[in-house]
Amino acid sequence: MELVSLWRYPVKSLQGERLDRARVEDNGLVGDRLWGLRDQRTGRILTARRRPELLEAAASYENGLPVITLPDGGIAAGPGKRTDRLLSEWLGNPVSLVSSVGTEPGRAEFFSDATDDSSQAIEWTMPASRYVDAAPVLVLTSASLRTAAGLYPNGVWDPRRFRPNLLIDLEGDDWVEDQWIGQPLRVGAVTLVATERCIRCTMVTRAQPGLKADVDIFRSLARHHGGRFGVWSDVLTQGSLSVGDLASLSATSSARGHAAVL
User: Minimum mean pLDDT among 102-106, 175-179, 225-229: which range?
Assistant: First the structure.
């Protein structure tokens, strides 16, 4: 198994940046989802579930600060009044670029019917210090992508729809990473453990540059795999990752607490 793609998303629900290498701390990739756009009217951190146009903008880091490239090519660099003004003009209501560090955990929501934006919104509280939905790191495999594409070949199963941090390449088909729950996964110098399958929502149906809106992406996952795709993972060992790093799965012995590489 090999790490073939690595992403981080500096600002929640905006396009992220594809990396060659990254540092992983105990709560995720350095810089991942540390920023969000707060609706000044409601206090909520916006997501592309509610505001699909967020996916039309992209975020990266320069000199440690988030830099947002707007759909019209405009640049909003770092937090501050100018950035808030540009973002507010773009979205048509007052918003602020805010950090997840040192603030109350953000509230998030998803629609009960991922194919119907008018359906009931279900709320929850995101983990502290990051604007992530459930866990620090999201892992997806090429095997799952092939399996899903085989079930709905007219869909475009581009990894960008599913916003993983790590894409692991391995041979074969099937929903391979589902079987990794509870088992340490060594990637480069980092050890992760998958804690749960990722519950998918309307995000995977949204349009973004180069990808059309497609509700049948979600319908296919719902019909064939309970709406799950990829695995949320915790960090067991911090360290550095690079594209091309080999990955190995380990089985933990409950009797002795040691891990044997499979």
Answer: 102-106
